[in-house]
Design brief:
The protein is of the alpha+beta class. It is about 40% helix and about 10% strand.
């Protein structure tokens, strides 16, 4: 799924603890904004942003 503000990504990450969530974003500025402004968690074993 695309990242956008990270709202759907964060929802899936929090609501489905057994799932591995991967978001794909073409614009690296959007990834930085989602992490800084919208508190998207850092990548870990369950969350990956490409």
């Amino acid at each position: 799924m695309g990242l956008g503000t990270g709202a759907l990504t964060k929802f899936c990450y929090r609501q489905f603890p057994a799932a591995k969530v991967t978001a794909i974003e073409l614009n690296p500025v959007v990834i930085v904004a989602a992490r800084r402004m919208f508190l998207l968690p850092p990548d870990n074993a369950r969350l990956r942003v490409l």
